[in-house]
Amino acid sequence: MENILKVDKIEKYYGSRSSLTKAINNISFQVEKGEFVAIMGASGSGKTTLLNVISTIDKVTSGHIYIDGLDITKLKGNLLNKFRREKLGFIFQDFNLLDTLTAYENIALALSIQNISSKEVDIRVKKVAEELDIKDVLEKYPYQMSGGQKQRVASARAIITNPSLVLADEPTGALDSKSSKMLLEKFKYLDEMGATILMVTHDAFTASYAKRVIFIKDGKIFKEIYRGENTRKEFFDEIIDVVTLLGGDVNDAL
After folding, report:
1. Are 164 and 195 contacting, i.e. CB atoms less than 8 angstroms apart?
2. How many independent structural domains does the chain possess?
3. CB atoms inside a 10 Å sphere around CB 58
4. 90 CB-near residues (< 8 Å, 6+ apart)
5. Which residues face 80 on adjacent strands?
6. CATH of the domain at 43
């Protein structure tokens, strides 16, 4: 299989010499094309920092991160902006939709920036909207949509450019259980599209939809588990077992 993401011995320090905090401690792992990987860990474990350095929001102190074979730790300026625009898709907990644009315009914006014809934009937006069940909200503004609809619009925006890697930061964090389940079921479409997804979550139910879960503790990889042939319920139970080993409150993970 083709590796989309390779994280190679990365470390991240914060603070000054007199007061250094090691947020990431020599982490290495790989994600293959088409994989759906979840990252879990308690607050302060380093999982958000890990997502931030992979998304180029932050920089590593040492080590390398490769996406599509490109060392992103060396990118700067216009090359970095171009990389973000063409290779990464983002799904945020708080949706990050532009309030002054309709759902259609929010989704289409990323394509418009790439100078794709309006006809092609229309075809692609309508196709992804149908698959994510948001055709009926395309002409609505964010304030007119439910949380679940807004997150599916955000998901459509993230994959419309066919990015190499989709990064999801607590995508169900602002949703009720019904909307969360609907969104995660729609993630199967992203999977079928060949999208590679790396998702940070504190929620075991959300993580159980992934194919693999990487657990982070004190800036290091504590354990990783694969779903394999297990049912989602069996995988959920396995995730809960690891959460218990991590020393977390299981009730927080349900």
Report:
1. no
2. 1
3. 17
4. 55, 96, 158, 166, 167, 168, 169
5. none
6. 3.40.50.300
Q: What predicted TM-score, i.e. pTM, was given to this entire model?
A: 0.89
- Domain limits for position 230: 3-253
From CA 167, how far away is CA 122, in angstroms rounded?
24
Residue 218 CB neighbour total at 10 angstroms:
14
CB contact at 8 A, 39 and 47: yes
**Virtual CA dihedral for 49, 50, 51, 56, nearest 10 degrees?**
90
pLDDT digits (tens), the chain, 254 positions: 689 999 999 999 998 777 888 999 999 999 999 999 999 998 889 999 999 999 999 999 999 999 999 999 999 999 998 899 889 999 988 889 999 999 999 999 988 888 889 999 999 999 999 988 899 999 999 999 999 999 999 999 998 988 999 999 999 888 888 888 888 888 877 777 778 999 999 899 999 999 999 999 999 999 999 999 999 999 999 999 999 988 754 444 43
Please state whether 226 falls in left (phi above 0), alpha (psi between -120 and 50) or beta: beta
The Cα–Cα gap between 152 and 58 comes to: 26
